[in-house]
User: Which sequence fits this backbone?
């Protein structure tokens, strides 16, 4: 595969759009001539022929098949795959209205014709054309969770749901409705428009333990977001901290690694597992789970003590260096080595390498303590500070700063936040306890970073569903999420969802969560809706590929009466009397608005624009009059935003990073540690699944039939566990079972447990709920307040404590 740097040459045409020049908006469009897509540019024709198309019904078919072929209506449509975040470009071949083949688009700068195992060997058919996909709206007719349903029409479903929502709003106030989202399987953030217009502030999801925490804390530090624009392709050193793209972003990683190797760039990996990327690293730090904040402080300490920081940048652009220096001094390397289990020499080596190799980037990483548990804020803040004091912010080859509006309308959309009154905002769940991600925190940073949206605290929300304190939460809409798998403390989530008056789930399949709903509604897949994909890890060629639906409703004889995300919200809004606030009745109406800054309609955008390049404007801080969009106008090593939140809430939030031993750690509770001696992590990605998806029996599940946990061979021997044994994994919350895989990639004191396991082949009705309590790691993870990050309320997926023992035969 070509490196993306060289592959940029093959784009056909570059057109400058003067209306965007002079600021940080998109100003370059790589476009193709205006013909229909299958007769587009030479490179595209080549792409299609390389995919084995018989010239898409335009080339003479082979004689033997001439008659048959003449009767087949065939076309190829371009799309972005949304089976994960990467949005690879694909070419979908349709015959007589059915998709028969999906292949990588060789013209796509990101995947260059490659796809992963989720699409390979026609596996996608097991998703798209799975006979168990939801086909019609279902209304619960028996007890909640009894598996008894009746099919109804969409009209009846919308009428009834809207009526019940209006009644609940009249009785309890709009805030009685909450929304739960998953991860980027739909038009992200669309629900905000509905909840704002309905009048509820309560939207939540897993962003708290994922991206959202960084999206709030980085703007607190430098008034923008850096870690999703790390310049891997030009960095001389990349630090992967809690990120294993070889498992989660394989297609990106292949060419990123090749590019790094060709340029001789160095790689540091920090991870509790000797994972795939660690095996490619120049330096690997095997960190004790949950101690990332301590490591960040130890590295900051070395960099300051050894005078390796960027004096010019710190003196001119940073606020609070003296306070930071004092705090970092509390974390000498030997102490940090004890906390993190990383030898002191390696900590020093990593700090020196990072501070002295220029440029270096430190991309966003997920499960390295970033978004998880008691020290999450400090870990994220510590990493943001490391980027700053080494002078890597907004540098070519460093971590580049996003600014408001730099992707036109495509992310900074009108979601009617103004429609929500201050009185309603103040009711957001978590506002008082965990204000970072709620409206309290959002109000402070929203001017700097409008792309961030506030998040209710999910553990608090589930408790409030049960208690009704301080006000009742009686209704919940779930889209692209499966809370019975996705949130810690599953038994509590179960009780909470069962206590609702109205639960609505919009999904592809019946799931453990849908099984508890009042209405279950068939959703449109990525092939059945409009989309804009944002593939690439390369900040120089962020691509935005638009696509119209590849498949229309009922096309090709399918019997699935789906509604796409937009139609779902629009039609519900129509029944509730605020449809006029939307862009129009169709998804395409909204997409037209998204691409309006490029001077074209969405259909044209899909046909004519191959990809858009976001120009890289590094070192914006050198422009005259520049100020970082923080209260001090500087990079805040000491956060005045956090200080302000502490004052406003009367809470003891620390403006500087720090480390506290979680209550389950032996240093905090030796007795507990004796009972549960192993340190447990979860969330490591494994193919072919994506979060809770693809567990249905068939092509995906055949690749990975059973849940697996990793255990070091020495530990396994000491516990009389052999590879493949079914074992109980137990915490104070209960026990689940998975099969043992012995591997030296984990420390003997650590086990790595797979997440999101359920069994669609098992009974739907309670108490089974598709076997959701058997192997689902969230059954044994706790979300009690004492384990949560005090500022953002994120719960721990890393660093829990567990014990393991072999199942008996009868288990
Ligand atoms: S990596 Fe993700 S986006 Fe690309 S083909 Fe696989 S599932 Fe689709």
Assistant:
């Amino acid at each position: 595969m070509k490196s993306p740097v060289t592959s940029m040459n093959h784009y056909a045409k570059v057109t400058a759009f003067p209306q965007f020049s002079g600021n940080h908006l998109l100003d370059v469009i790589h476009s193709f001539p205006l013909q229909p897509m299958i007769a587009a540019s030479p490179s595209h024709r080549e792409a299609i022929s390389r995919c084995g198309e018989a010239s898409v019904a335009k080339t003479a078919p082979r004689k033997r098949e001439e008659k048959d072929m003449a009767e087949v209506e065939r076309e190829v449509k371009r799309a972005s795959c949304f089976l994960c975040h990467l949005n690879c470009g694909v070419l979908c071949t349709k015959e007589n209205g059915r998709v028969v083949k999906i292949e990588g688009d060789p013209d796509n700068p990101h995947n260059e014709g490659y796809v992963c195992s989720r699409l390979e060997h026609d596996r996608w058919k097991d998703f798209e054309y799975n006979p168990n996909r939801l086909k019609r709206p279902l209304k619960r007719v028996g007890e909640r969770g009894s598996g008894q349903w009746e099919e109804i029409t969409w009209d009846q479903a919308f009428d009834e749901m809207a009526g019940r929502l209006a009644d609940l709003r009249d009785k309890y106030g709009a805030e009685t409705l909450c929304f739960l989202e998953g991860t980027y399987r739909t038009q992200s953030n669309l629900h905000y428009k509905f909840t704002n217009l309905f009048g509820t502030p309560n939207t939540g999801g897993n962003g708290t333990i994922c991206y959202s925490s960084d999206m709030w804390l980085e703007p607190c530090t430098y008034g923008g977001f850096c870690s999703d624009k790390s310049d891997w392709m030009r960095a001389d050193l990349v630090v992967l901290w809690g990120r294993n793209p070889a498992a989660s972003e394989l297609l990106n990683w292949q060419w990123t690694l090749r590019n790094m190797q060709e340029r001789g760039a160095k790689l540091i990996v920090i991870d509790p597992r000797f994972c795939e990327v660690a095996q490619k690293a120049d330096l690997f730090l095997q960190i004790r789970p949950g101690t990332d904040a301590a490591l960040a402080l130890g590295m900051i300490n070395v960099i300051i003590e050894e005078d390796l920081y960027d004096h010019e940048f710190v003196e001119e652009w940073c606020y609070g260096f003296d306070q930071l220096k004092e705090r970092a001094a509390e974390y000498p390397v030997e102490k940090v080595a004890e906390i993190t289990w990383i030898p002191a020499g390696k900590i020093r080596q990593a700090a020196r390498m990072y501070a002295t190799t220029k440029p270096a980037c430190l991309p966003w990483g997920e499960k390295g303590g970033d978004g998880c548990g008691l020290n999450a804020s400090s870990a994220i803040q510590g990493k943001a500070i490391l980027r700053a004091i080494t002078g890597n912010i907004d540098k070519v080859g460093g971590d580049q700063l996003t600014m408001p509006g730099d992707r036109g309308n495509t992310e900074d959309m009108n979601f009617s936040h103004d429609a929500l009154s201050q009185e309603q905002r103040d009711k957001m769940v978590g506002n008082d306890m965990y204000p970072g991600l709620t409206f309290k925190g959002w109000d402070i940073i929203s001017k700097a970073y409008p792309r961030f949206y506030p998040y209710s605290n999910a553990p608090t929300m589930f408790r409030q569903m049960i208690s009704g304190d301080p006000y009742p939460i009686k209704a919940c809409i779930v889209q692209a999420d499966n809370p019975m798998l996705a949130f810690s403390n599953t038994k509590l989530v179960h009780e909470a969802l069962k206590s609702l008056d109205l639960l609505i789930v919009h999904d592809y399949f019946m799931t453990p969560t849908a099984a508890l709903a009042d209405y279950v509604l068939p959703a449109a897949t990525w092939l059945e809706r409009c989309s804009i994909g944002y593939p690439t890890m390369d900040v120089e060629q962020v691509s935005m590929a638009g696509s119209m639906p590849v498949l229309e409703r009922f096309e090709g004889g399918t019997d699935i009466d789906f509604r796409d995300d937009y139609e779902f919200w629009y039609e519900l809004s129509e029944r509730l009397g605020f449809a006029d606030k939307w862009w129009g009745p169709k998804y395409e109406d909204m997409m037209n608005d998204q691409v309006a800054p490029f001077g074209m309609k969405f259909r044209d955008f899909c046909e004519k624009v191959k990809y858009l390049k976001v120009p890289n404007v590094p070192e914006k801080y050198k422009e005259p009059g520049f100020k970082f969009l923080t209260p001090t106008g500087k990079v805040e090593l000491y956060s005045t935003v956090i200080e302000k939140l502490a004052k406003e809430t009367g809470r003891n939030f620390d403006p500087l990073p720090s480390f506290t031993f979680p209550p389950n750690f032996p240093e905090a509770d030796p007795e507990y540690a004796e009972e549960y001696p192993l340190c447990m992590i979860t969330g490591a990605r494994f193919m072919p699944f994506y979060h809770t998806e693809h567990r249905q029996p068939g092509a995906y599940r055949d690749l990975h039939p059973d849940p697996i946990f990793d255990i070091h061979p020495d530990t396994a021997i000491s516990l009389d566990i052999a590879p493949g044994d079914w074992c109980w994994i137990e915490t104070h919350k209960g026990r689940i079972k998975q099969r043992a895989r012995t591997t030296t990639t984990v420390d003997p004191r650590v086990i790595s447990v797979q997440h999101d396991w359920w069994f669609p082949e098992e009974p739907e009705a309670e108490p089974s709920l598709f076997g959701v309590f058997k192997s689902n790691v969230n059954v044994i993870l706790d979300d009690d307040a004492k384990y949560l990050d005090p500022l953002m309320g994120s719960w721990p997926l890393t660093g829990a404590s567990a014990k393991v023992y072999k199942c008996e035969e009868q288990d």
Remarks:
- The longest strand covers residues 734-742.
